[in-house]
Specification:
heterotrimer; A mainly alpha; B mainly alpha; C alpha/beta; A: mainly alpha; MetI-like fold; 10 helices; 0% strand; elongated; B: mainly alpha; transmembrane (chain B); membrane (chain B); MetI-like_sf (chain B); Osmoprotectant transport system permease protein (chain B)
Chain lengths: 231, 225, 361
């Protein structure tokens, strides 16, 4: 009954048009999520490589990552909006903060996990620090690094939905509007779309992971389940 | 700002609200942790016994874990027939997350029990169920504890999302604070969430240390197997 | 008594692990199953406590088909020791040893008292009971494994390559210990190994298995060495079986000669012969080469290190070792108290072996 109502709503052409239609909301959802993860990566990947390569600040990275994982997403976005005012950027700052820890710890762990014997061999062959980083450590770290990005995407897709509460666009807006008008089929339809979006994005990154990870490491990539934080 | 928090907390009504939501939050996050463990252990055990089930179970767990909590809080009542604001939704959803998070480590831990130890247990006359509780499960404790730490932090952070669909917990402080444009309840909510996560984490570590004294003894004599 | 009657183990893929095995293990003896890997020796062992069930035939313990027993109850009455010891890493040594008594319903206090006694029986100090397996050496872990298998005082002990993972020196100690224990306990022991030396050292009877799970020969070890049933057994026990045979020959008929001796601290006039240095009146310490001279008194530092010592009355293998390891080419013979008794040469030892073999054949 409720599911057939939901399908009616999902298949109603009117819901697929206009600035509040499903395609627009999906586009917004993806846009905010990708933007946040890109900015977070720009910060977290170099930092993770630096810490992993030099070993400096490792304790700090681990502690910060763990502490940030416990942050409630709803609390964080409401806090930033109240502090910085309504708008996209305050919410995006919250999203970026949530996306940094998984990428940072994934990158760090990836570099850290590279077999010490491999590093020694690279040094023995006369590679400079930079060469070791690019030719040995980064390729070997890719599975865990992308695993970290994958967790970050999941985290951010979930949080964009939550952030509809403070006015950010995306599929969460449809869900909350359904709640306001007591249309459960609309809430359910939006929830299903959010779930689908998360699964599809996750699979896309999984495919990228398979493409860019060096062949010799695919076995290792399978074994390294991404460490995931909240949603 | 701290003055504002003091002002907020000086009202007995607010204090009651915070305390009540904190207790609700503890209940909604920790009950699923225990339930999730109770689900994951037999599931993981089954997966080690029947190879064909293993891929199905781990793959299913992976996809379930991908679904954002807000979506799951809305989809679950449509499936299990509860009201949208029922706390059961949060409990079931977080139990599912906990179980999906733990099932792979459980499988790995059970498979990591050395074959010779299992063989010795069988040869001494343990029946399968008794052997599981006497040998395999105690040896899996370190891995289970590591999984439980991740799951507890995740659960404690996720309960807040329930406030969006009208379920209690510290998330209520965020929605209320936002609606009246007032920071103190939000800051109190964030701080209490972090402190709760920290305390539960410490408790799990303590419990693990009690159960794994054997693991932390230094080997006095090297060699041998 | 354990009987294998027409026992065959065939796996679904067609592999035959054990082929029509017929064999009786006498009560109160050590019987060793030996053979190359894949010969079915371990499979046969594991059919006794039903870790594996045969596809055909039956295994009887004291006339009773093991398949009539509940596997768990059957196993509690049979001790089992394996290569890696298989100790429970999460339990203390004492609780490891107490496992089977507890399973059989003993009280905790009684089981622990028994476990403490057993640690002593296998030569481990009682304090070790509080440790965890990771804190023990490989040899100590094996002793605990033996103690654990003995805990419920089972009449039968199954041992699957129990000493293969420890280093040779420790292994010999463990073998001696097992022989001593068996002298006290009088169990029916089935022992699996791939090492023929270990087999002849421990076994009262030895069963040699060949690939495909066929029993090639079942006999007393001296018989197997002296009269291998076929080329396979002959190859397996090795061409140097004459040397292994020394393990069974005492020194009856071995001529023991004498050499010049000198006491440490005493004066010594240069001799054209090898001279044996003694300490404490009669304990051999080393050799002086012919014609060697030294100013003043002799000290132990002037002596060349001697080889191994041969204790009179023990197997001839020791005599040959002593002769071959001595710088003088003369093996030093001592009595039970370790006092100098004489010397032997390698040729004399070998001559005794030859004459024994001739009389045996």
């Amino acid at each position: 009954m409720i599911f057939s109502n939901m399908i009616d709503w999902l298949t109603n052409g009117a819901n697929w048009q206009g600035p509040e239609g499903i395609p627009t909301r999906v586009g917004e959802h993806v846009y905010y999520a990708v933007l946040a993860v890109l900015v977070a990566s720009a910060v977290a990947v170099p930092l993770g490589l630096f810490v992993g390569h030099t070993g400096r600040g490792a304790v700090f990275v681990v502690a910060i990552s763990n502490a940030l994982r416990a942050l409630p997403t709803l609390g964080l976005v409401t806090l930033f909006v109240l502090l910085l005012g309504l708008g996209d950027w305050p919410v995006l700052i919250g999203l970026i903060i949530l996306a940094v820890p998984p990428i940072l710890s994934g990158t760090y762990a990836g570099v850290q996990d590279v077999d010490r014997g491999v590093i020694d061999a690279a040094r023995g062959m006369g590679m400079t620090g930079w060469q070791r980083l690019w030719k040995v450590e980064v390729p070997n770290a890719l599975p865990l690094l992308i695993g970290g990005v994958r967790s970050a995407v999941l985290q951010v897709v979930a949080t964009v939905a939550v952030a509809a509460f403070v006015g950010l666009g995306g599929l969460g807006r449809i869900l909350l509007s359904g709640q306001k008008t007591y249309k459960f089929e609309v809430m359910l339809g939006a929830a299903v779309l959010i779930a689908l979006l998360a699964v599809v994005l996750d699979q896309i990154i999984a495919a990228i992971q398979r493409l860019v990870v060096p062949k010799g490491l695919t076995v290792a990539a399978k074994a390294a389940a991404p460490t995931r934080g909240g949603k | 700002m701290f003055g504002d928090i003091g002002t907020y907390l000086s009202s007995p009504g607010n204090r009651d609200l915070v305390l009540q939501q904190l207790l609700e939050h503890i209940y909604l996050s920790l009950l699923p942790l225990v339930l999730g463990l109770l689900v994951a252990i037999p599931l993981g055990w089954t997966a080690t016994r029947f190879r064909w089930l293993r891929g199905l179970l781990l793959g299913g767990a992976n996809i379930l874990y991908t679904i954002p909590s807000l979506a799951l809080f809305v989809i679950l009542p449509a499936i299990i027939g509860t009201g949208i604001t029922s706390p059961v939704n949060v409990i079931v959803a977080l139990t599912l997350y906990t179980a999906t998070l733990l099932v792979r480590p459980v499988v790995d831990a059970l498979e990591a029990v050395p074959q010779h130890v299992v063989a010795a247990a069988v040869a001494m006359g343990y029946r399968p169920l008794a052997r599981f509780f006497a040998v395999e499960l105690p040896l899996a404790v370190p891995v289970l504890a590591a999984g439980a730490r991740v799951a507890s932090v995740s659960n404690i952070s996720l309960v807040s999302v329930g406030a969006l669909v009208g379920i209690g917990g510290l998330g209520l402080l965020f929605t209320k604070g936002f609606e009246i444009d007032y920071l103190p309840p939000i800051i109190i909510g964030i701080l209490l969430t972090l402190i709760l996560a920290l305390i539960v984490d410490l408790l799990i570590v303590l419990l693990r240390n009690m159960l794994t004294r054997w693991q932390r003894v230094g080997a006095h004599v090297g060699g041998g197997s | 008594m354990i009987e294998f009657r027409d026992v065959t183990k065939k796996y679904p893929d067609g592999t035959v692990a054990v082929d029509e095995l017929n064999l009786t293990v006498e009560a109160g003896t050590i019987t060793v199953f030996v053979g190359p890997s894949g010969c079915g020796k371990t499979t046969s062992l594991r059919m006794v406590n039903r870790m594996i069930d045969p596809s055909a035939g039956e295994v009887l313990i004291d006339g009773e088909d093991v398949r009539k027993s509940d596997p768990a109850l059957l196993r509690r009455g049979i001790g089992y020791v394996i290569q890696q010891a298989g100790l429970f890493p999460h339990r203390t040594v004492l609780d490891n040893v107490a496992t089977v008594p507890l399973l059989s319903g003993w009280t905790k206090a009684k089981a622990r008292t028994r476990a403490a006694e057993l640690l002593e029986t296998v030569g481990l100090p009682a304090e070790m009971g509080k440790r965890f397996p990771a804190q023990l050496s490989g040899g100590q872990q094996q002793r605990v494994g033996v103690a654990r298998a003995l805990a419920a005082d089972p009449p039968i002990l199954l041992m699957d390559e129990p000493f293969s993972a420890v280093d040779p020196v420790v292994r010999e100690g463990l073998q001696d210990e097992l022989l001593r224990l068996q002298g006290e306990l009088d169990k029916t022991i089935v022992f699996v190994t791939h090492d023929i030396d270990e087999a002849v050292r421990l076994g009262e009877k030895v069963a040699v298995f060949r690939q495909g799970g066929v029993l090639a020969q079942y006999d007393a070890p001296a018989e197997i060495l002296a009269r291998p049933a076929d080329d396979f057994v002959s190859d397996f026990v090795g061409r140097d079986r004459g040397y292994r045979g020394l393990s069974f020959v005492d020194n009856e008929g071995l001529p023991i000669g004498q050499v010049d001796t000198v006491l440490v601290g005493g004066a010594h006039s240069p001799s054209q012969q090898w001279t044996l240095v003694l300490v404490d009146g009669d304990k051999p310490r080393g050799w002086l080469a012919p014609g060697s001279t030294v100013d003043g008194e002799w000290t132990t530092a002037d002596a060349l290190a001697g080889g191994s010592l041969y204790t009179r009355g023990t197997p001839l293998r020791g005599a040959l070792d002593a002769a071959l390891s001595s710088p003088a080419g003369l093996g030093v013979v001592v009595d039970d108290a370790g006092a100098y008794a004489g010397v032997v040469t390698a040729e004399e030892v070998l001559k005794v072996i030859e004459s024994r073999r001739e009389t045996a054949e």
